[in-house]
Amino acid sequence: MKRIFINVVFASDSNYAQHAAVAMTSILANTKAPERVAFYLLDDNVADEVKRKMVQTVEQFGSVIHFVAVDAERFNDFYVSAQLSRAAYFRLEMAKLLPETVHKAVYMDCDLLVLDDIQQLWDVNLDGKPLAAVPDFGIMASHKDWKEKKAHLDMRDGDLYFNSGMLVLDLILWREYDYGQQVEDVAASHNFRHHDQDALNFVFHNKWVDLPIRWNVIPPVWQLFTKILRNKTMRERSIEARKNMAVLHYAGGYKPWEYKREKAFNARYYDYLEQTAFKDVEMPQMDPRKKRRSLSRQLQRIKLANFWGKCFG
Question: Which of 2, 71, 61 is nearest to 30 (CA)?
Answer without folding.
Answer: 61
